[in-house]
Specification:
about 30% helix; about 220 residues; four-stranded antiparallel β-sheet; 10 strands; binds adenosine-5'-diphosphate; 7 helices; binds magnesium ion
């Protein structure tokens, strides 16, 4: 039985282009199920790269990655996409909403399974919007939402499939302090395991575990 939701054993990344560059040195990291982990470090340290490997957005070039005991590092691109769809909700610095669509329609983009019926899609989206405190703006066009509301819709979109793991990469970077605090409190209140990339040390301290990365190496 696996000890963690996420287990990295010697996971590293070297890219060949434009020139051979080592981006991540081999990393050993366990994220227990239900843990809230902050990943901190200076700009260019490799935070986004590590988060994208954990989220299976890109493969590592070496090492073993186990998710609930499953070998993610052995999956091909198509299987990786399926793994992401099933298990990982992403939140980025910008909400990336479709402005012409309603909040609810944007949340619905998080349901990747095409077999879910329309009524169930609506019900699950409303529940996710409720979870982020935005049920009342479900029908409002995204273009009319505030920055903080947009990011909460993005969190609802990440949550709507019930992911085991939420990866948030600098989710407060584009928000003012008040909205940023609300978004952090929301992320830390979720049931899912959380990997939060941040350079805000106050935000990092909310976590159960703080992982520091410098020059592609865990400090
Ligand atoms: N595919 C890639 N090819 C070349 N360099 C990359 C690639 N991905 C990331 N990098 C470089 O790796 C370093 C770490 O980037 P990143 O993970 O985005 O850092 P952080 O999120 O901590 O600011 C940076 O120097 C970046 O330019
Ligand atoms: Mg980054």
């Amino acid at each position: 039985m696996a000890a963690g939701l996420v287990e990295l054993a010697g996971v590293g990344l070297e890219v060949e282009r434009p020139v051979r560059t080592r981006i991540l040195h081999p990393i050993w990291l366990t994220i227990p199920e239900g843990a809230r982990v902050s990943l901190v470090g200076p700009s260019g340290a490799g935070k986004t790269t590590l988060a994208s490997i954990v989220g299976a957005l890109q493969p590592a070039s070496e090492g073993e990655y186990l998710f609930r005991g499953e070998r993610v590092d052995l999956l091909d691109a198509k299987a990786r996409a399926g793994f992401r769809a099933d298990n990982v909700g992403f939140v980025f610095q910008n909400a990336h909403l479709i402005d012409e669509r309603s909040a609810l329609q944007n949340v619905a983009l998080g349901i990747i399974d095409p077999t879910v019926e329309a009524d169930e899609v609506t019900g699950r989206c409303l529940a996710a919007l409720q979870q982020v405190g935005l049920a009342e703006v479900a029908d409002r066009k995204a273009a009319l939402l505030s920055g903080g509301e947009r990011q909460r819709v993005a969190i609802a979109r990440a949550l709507v499939k019930g992911p085991r793991l939420v990866i948030a990469d600098e989710p407060t970077g584009a928000l003012d302090q008040t909205n940023g605090k609300a978004v952090l409190e929301l992320l830390f209140s979720l049931d899912a395991t959380l990997l939060l990339v941040t350079h805000d040390l106050a935000a990092a301290e909310l976590a159960d575990q703080v992982v520091t990365i410098v020059d592609g190496t865990l400090a």
